[in-house]
Request: fold
Amino acid sequence: MKKVIEGSMAVAEAVKVCRPHVISAYPITPQTHIVENLSQFVADGDLKSQFVNVESEFGAASVILGASATGARAYSTTTSQGLLLMTEVLFNIAGLRFPVVITCTNRAVSAPINIWNDQQDVMTIRDSGWILLFAEDNQEAADMHLQAFKIGEHPEIMLPVMVNMDGFILTHAFEPIEFIDQKMADEFLPPYKPELYLTTKNPLTFGILAEPDWYMETRYRLQKAIEASSDMIEEVADQFKKTFGRYQGGLVEKYRLDGAETVIVSMGSVVGTIKEVADELRDKGKKVGVLKIRAFRPFPKEAIYDALKNVKNVIVMEKAISLGATGILYDEIKAALYGKPSQPKISGFIAGLGGRDIPKESIMKVIEKGEAGISDNVFVDLKENLIGGK
Amino acid sequence: MLKEIRIHGRGGQGVVTAAELLAVAAFEDGKYAQAFPTFTSERMGAPVQSFVRIADHKVRARNQIYEPDFLIIQDYTLIGAVDLLKGLKPDGLVIVDTEKNPEEVGLKTKARILTIPASRIAMEILGRPIQNTTLMGAFAGATGLISLEAIKRSVMERFPGELGKKNVAAVEKAYELLKGAKND
Reply:
């Protein structure tokens, strides 16, 4: 069944068929309709799940941590300041190797207060050990939740997964969505049965003190697990395609890269607009392609090099920055190509911060700039009159 | 085929619902559709916009609509207060909720202007001046881009029961008033 529904509803429907035992939520503004819809499903008896309304985002993260420790499948969603408040717990969840799933409906962080979209929030937990996936449209966002649980819960992975979707731009957009059949979902995502979990029958402790003799090895194993998830992400995307017939890419999606001289690299919903621009330029005979990063952690450096090695100009466009350094994705793309035989020009652009729209014309200009020379850390569509210019 | 619609109104007038229902209806007609609001802090009475894209292929663009084919103006008092016509295609179409004639509304454009007393129709049929569904009927009638049947279904699905029936009556009335008007 296909229907036009809001992005938040599409995600709620997808989470429903994943049958989470526990859902926690703190209904702060900005929250999305995702948890509103899920709480409705639970209240209506359409979803057998324990819905826990908590006192803060810190509490929301703590509830799914605790639930997962007992062997439950657990889910929450947050954004922006809420994600920042969760941060301490999120590092714990990854360290404890609990395969929970959180949807981050990406939005800007304060100050100044801004409830609109960019991807700065998730960058805060870039180094936490979470698998970080980014969706381009609402179907992909919905589908990604089934994939997220499946990847994270695999016995060789056992890691939390964050599904990132652009706040407002996707969460509040209505578009046709293919609903996921419960039976097929059950086949694709069987019940979660961890080897170890908290039970009074077999008392265990998780996350106790690890002295210098022990701690470093836990971090090494965390690193190995997240590296191993690369193959799992590809495999699960293929399995999803087999079951549901939809494929939006594995670690990356390559769009019109055949013979491309210029490739724009980006993540999230803006990739859709960039694809339209690439089509228009291809029609004019310009060899432009797009590389969509679906998995930001694990960072798919081999896939990225493979996609970009025959390209002249690489243009990274992102909605976040490491203040005092450079665009984060930009930096990592450069690192992925460092020391390799092929060395394309790589330019970095910061765009769409705090909900600033990214029109096609701006993308065209970015392409022109990136083809003309190396641009570093260029903020797209700045208003000169607001920064002391004319 | 890609047609872009921009809807202007004020917070509380159902501008977002109108966009949503147009997208639902277009999809019912077998087209691809995308609808999204502009994202402002919701305040009653503040100028707001929503956007709809209708196409015969998947819509991937996420940028706002800068060069609409169609404008729907739900609130007449926005004329002069907001640059409503910005980017409107010269061969485009504007539908305004007003009692006035097109030449009296104060919009300077090469595009075609159609007026319809949607608030009055809504007041008469619904008992409330919520003109969004009425204007959807007007849009379907004037453009033929969406079928009347699809609009009616999307309205009934959103507002089941008596409220839906009343809204459908308003849709039908507006549809008849502007039916084929674009080609007159």
About this structure: The radius of gyration of chain B is 15 Å. Strands of chain B lie at 2-10, 32-37, 47-55, 70-73, 93-97, 112-116. Residues 7 and 72 of chain B are 5 Å apart (CA to CA).
